[in-house]
Amino acid sequence: MVTEIVISSPYIDGRGEFFCRGCLGKNLFSALDLGKLPIANELLLSSEGEIEKFPLHLRICTDCGLGQVADVVTPERIFRDYRYLSSLSTTFLKHASDFVREQMDRNTFLPHDWVLEIASNDGYLLKNFIPYGIRVVGVEPAENVAATSRSLGIETISEFFSSQLARELLARYGYPKMIIANNVMAHVPDLVDFIRGLQTLCGPATQISIENPSLSNILVGMQFDTIYHEHYSYLSATTVSELSKRNGLQLFRVEELKIHGGSNRYWLRALSENSPVDSSVDSLILDEKSKGLFELTNWVSYSLKVSNVLKELKVWLNNEAMKGNRIYGYGAAAKASTLLNSINVQADFIVAIADASQEKQNRFMPPNGIRIISPKQLFEQKPTDVLIFPWNIKSEIAVYLKQNLGPEIRFWCAIPEMHQVEI
Ligand SMILES: [Zn+2]
Predict the structure, then answer these.
(1) 60 Cα to the center of ligand 1, angstroms
(2) Could you read off the pLDDT of 230-283 as tens digits, one per residue?
(3) How remote is the CA of residue 66 from the centroid of ligand 1, in Å?
(4) Of 14, 211, 247, nearest in space to 125 by CA
(5) Dist. CA 304 → ligand 1 center (Å)
(6) Does the predicted model carry a pTM greater than 0.85?
(7) How many Å lie between the centroid of ligand 1 and the Cα of residue 332?
(8) If you measure from the C-alpha of residue 30 to the centroid of ligand 1, how many angstroms do you get, rounded to a whole number?
(9) Which segments within 98-193 are labelled E, that is strand?
């Protein structure tokens, strides 16, 4: 694993001023400072282990609206040994197969047409095109995840997507019919180069589908636990429209989705003066403006609300521990890391965190080494309360756990504020 830390980021100049990674402007304001936190997917190998921490500070550009954190850690360190597998969630699997079915109904694919997915993970989405006989190519830099995708018969290139790779793909395969980039634009340090790569591969008939959680949800839905070092950028319709225009593309339709607690699906094509743009684009841009998404004063009061949510969680953990309840966590994902590290949670408040991923089991959640166990161990250890971290699939998790833990078990979630999860 590469452990180099970028000291002179392309987005921080010699005087420590920040450039916007979207428009390269210098008009950024501080939206939320979470202090120094570990990289969200890095876990401890022992309960006594130490972990490196890096500043995590959300800033917003007033010129293009892009939310962003400084790239203090290289993508190689974050993504080469990525432990997130899309196929572990039935919600995501259904979302992917529904998307493919919808595209097959909506479009006509010719025999030479091909589909590219950037950050194709373990093939969770592209595999749905295979029964239709459509050629698919995945780009997935995490070697361990790409190997799973290849085992499903999906041609997978183990590299980071870039304008250079886009030129190579174009020379090898021609323009794709469709480019899918779900939950990846947020992970790209050089956003301009990524968008230029999309533009390179965008032929006259190419449609680009980009899904990403919206910056609106962080503000309105209190989803500050989706801020982590691997999410360099926080998008909105305003930003995607602006950055597309600057790079020869056009945002022509937006769909608002429920997945991940509120995502947008942005549809892009080659910039064209004469093609009509769907009304969904202007209407969402107006909505973002009316929510004050790019106004400093809103973010000042937001920071205070975040402090209160964190305080509530600490008080709740303390009270439950005093009552002698056995609190477990579920889902040792990045959200859990941001939340628990933000309150510097002590290991004796949460007995253990269960996670279905074998890669995480027997490791320890920083900062103070909470053990990660399997769901089976959770069922054997008889918790009284389970704090669910992936709030975006909390019902799915609660239903599954209740079947195994019995009717007395209580489920909780700390976002948007501390509440009991009823199923
Ligand atoms: Zn900008």
Answers:
(1) 8
(2) 899 999 999 999 999 999 999 999 999 987 678 999 999 999 888 899 999 999
(3) 6
(4) 211
(5) 25
(6) yes
(7) 33
(8) 13
(9) 114-118, 135-139, 155-157, 178-182
